[in-house]
Amino acid sequence: MLRVKDLHAKVEEQEILKGVDLEVRAGEVHAVMGPNGSGKSTLAQVLAGKEDYEVTAGSLELDGEDLQEMAPEERAHAGLFLAFQYPVEIPGVGNSYFLKAAVNANRKARGEAELDAMDFLKLLRERAGLVEVDEALLRRPVNEGFSGGEKKRNEILQMAVLEPRLAVLDETDSGLDIDALKTVAAGVNALRAENRAFVVITHYQRLLNYIVPDHVHVLLDGRIVRSGGSELAHELEEKGYGGFDGARAEA
Amino acid sequence: MTSGADTRTGPYLELFAGRGAGGPVGARRQQAIERFEAAGFPGSRDEEWRQTNLGPILRARPVPASGGALGEGGALPFLYPDCDRMVFVNGRYAPAASSPPEGVTAFSLADPAGAGADLLAEHLGASVDGRASCSADAGVHPFAALNTALFEDGVALGIPAGTALERPIQVLWLSAPSADAAAAEGGAPASIEVSFPRLLVVAGENSQAAVIETFAAADPAAGGYFVCPAAEFVCGAGSVVRHTRLQADAAGAFHLGFQHARVDRSAAFDSSSLAFGGALVRNDTVALLDGEGADCTLDGLYVLDGSQFTGNHMRVEHRQPHTTSHQLYKGVLDGQARSVFNGRIYVHQAAQKTDAKQTNRNLLLSKAALANSNPQLEIFADDVRCTHGSTIGRLDEEALFYLRARGIGFEEAHGMLVHAFAREVTDKATFEPLRRDLEARLFASLNGGRSNGQDG
């Protein structure tokens, strides 16, 4: 589904990604772990199409289509979803209005009939229940004044409503207490499906106790230095990232 | 500086000479023209006016708007349902299109009689032209003085004490310049049709009223006309006056407006100014909080494109203790548009416990657009709360990316964000037909303007 090959990317003349390879198949959950500054968030933003990042070499493909040729909205239409590490507050735009616009923009782009107000509301209520988002949050402007946990839940709600094929979760666990973490993880797990894949980007192993990955990758200084199964996350927890410094040479 | 010998004032003095100074306010007209003559038009070094380029107006010869006939339905597109209304075409009352409110002393200024004459004699111009109004340094407002001297027609509304009007009163000021003037579009017109709409609202004690002023052109493509309106509000103790000023003039129009409110004890004056049209537009607002507990809310929105200019010059005076004022002005500028916001809050020594807040936010959609924001606080009391904030910025790229990452296309995402910015002001309209109209105008302005903006 997702094929990243020898990806190099820079921002403001500084090279952040120095040759990332990643292959994700439908139904899989991949965890990308790494310390601060390793390039995790850059990878997420590059996948979503943030213009501040320049891809200098390598390729990004979703279902064989070159992502670099696609605007951010086209990537969404193709089924890519990024749960933001820092969800943006948008004063004046109602949360449910925004979600309806997003759902219908995607449906329209895919040649599907747009949902009317009633059908959309039904969908929204159902998914809000799934990820335990209070209906009051739906009436408020997008993320405005939301607590850290509410913002992250709102990201998962958007994912649940938009039903992406590939969801990239960028440090969705940061700033969450254990209850919120469990709720978010339950939401993700409820959406796991054969035709859907996840890339879970995280600093800590904690989230992976609740979202158990099929594959774990360690990202250090812009490269994936080691890949393995879910046991790799536990190894990281014990040894810390320092233990992988030596692996960099091998990679 | 200017002087009485200013050659530019001559044509306006001639207009006055041709009209005379009769009627119940004849003495005030005479006084106003003398003040205007003495002060002249503002020069480029006049601090209050240096950012307003009056050249295109003053180079043209003013001719009275011809009072052109308007077909029966000409005013209809601008009228709201469920309103009382008074319609003026080129500054002249159009009784056939009007349905004045009942229970209110409402009349055209051209032909006042009885109670109306008393209302005029007591209030018209009493607070506008220098006396008992601004502090000494504000001086004479030349265009307000011109309006007093030269208005043909206008409307005075006297709301009796204790009366709460159920329906808003819409006052439509429609400009329908003659074909000659419209044809002058393109270069600077040699002559411009000028009208001087005049509104007086006297709200009795504990009365409530909502007044909507609409400035529009019968032909939105018309050019070569100059509207020079003045509005006065006398808000009696405990009264609540809501005022909306919708400026939707033709693209080539000049509009220099003046409005003045005196707010008495425990009264509230709430005025929204929405500016969409015109080539050169300026609106000066003076609010005097003249009784304990007086409150004013002044909101504004300007949506500009092309080479439009709009200036908003505010002066709020806190003269008594426990007075409050809130100002929120927002601008959206595209193309090479320019705006000026001058907001002065003046807190007199007696006005302890003043609570004043002023906010001006500007959103620039193109590289060439330019917004100026000049807050000025003058505070002579020591126990007050005064805050001001002004921002001039571009669309939030992070928010734009966020929306696009959810599948919303660039154009739609852009539109959502600009609308969200502007709607903070238009959403305050509580009268549903007005709110819908503002939304439609906002939508039309923004979507018409997009083609001139950057696209990334």
Q: Over all CA atoms, what is the radius of gyration of chain B?
A: 21 Å
Output the number of helix runs of chain B. Answer: 9
Radius of gyration of chain A (Å): 18 Å
Approximately how much helix is present in the residues of chain A?
25-40%
- How confident is the prediction overall: mean pLDDT of chain A? 91
Weakly predicted, low-confidence segments of chain A: none
- Structural class per helix/strand content of chain A? alpha/beta
| Extended strand count of chain B | 22
- Give the oligomeric state of the chains in this entry, treating copies of one chain as homo and distinct chains as hetero: heterodimer
Largest interface: A-B, 29 and 22 residues
Distance N terminus to C terminus of chain A?
Answer: 23 Å
Assess the beta-strand content of chain A as a share of residues: 25-35%
Major sheet attributes of chain B:
12 strands, mixed
Portion in beta strands of chain B:
35-45%
Class inferred from helices and paired strands of chain B: alpha/beta
Mean pLDDT of chain B: 87
What report would you give on this structure?
The complex is a heterodimer of chains A (251) and B (456). With 251 residues, chain A is of the alpha/beta class. Among the domains of chain A are: 1-30 and 54-70, no CATH class; 82-163, no CATH class; 212-251, no CATH class. Chain A is built from 9 helices and 12 strands. Chain A has helices at residues 40-48, 72-77, 95-109, 117-130, 135-139, 148-162, 178-191, 231-239, 247-250, and strands at 2-11, 14-24, 29-33, 54-62, 65-66, 80-83, 90-94, 141-142, 166-170, 197-202, 215-220, 223-228. In chain A, helix 6 (148-162) packs parallel to helix 7 (178-191). The longest helix of chain A has 15 residues, at 95-109. The mean pLDDT of chain A is 91. Chain B has 456 residues and is α/β, with parallel strands linked by helices. Chain B has a domain at 10-290. Chain B is built from 9 helices and 22 strands. In chain B, strands 1, 4, 5, 7, 8, 10, 11, 13, 15, 17, 19 and 21 form a 12-stranded mixed beta sheet that branches. Chain B has a 10-stranded mixed beta sheet with strand order 3-2-6-9-12-14-16-18-20-22, covered by helices on one side. The longest helix of chain B is centred in the C-terminal third of the chain and has 18 residues, at 432-449. The N and C termini of chain B lie far apart (45 Å). The model of chain B is unreliable at 129-138 and 449-456 (pLDDT under 50). Chain A binds chain B through residues 48-51, 71-73, 75-77, 81-82, 84, 87-93, 98, 101-102, 105-106, 109, 141, 158, 162, and chain B through 396, 398-399, 401-410, 412-413, 416-417, 419-421, 423-424.
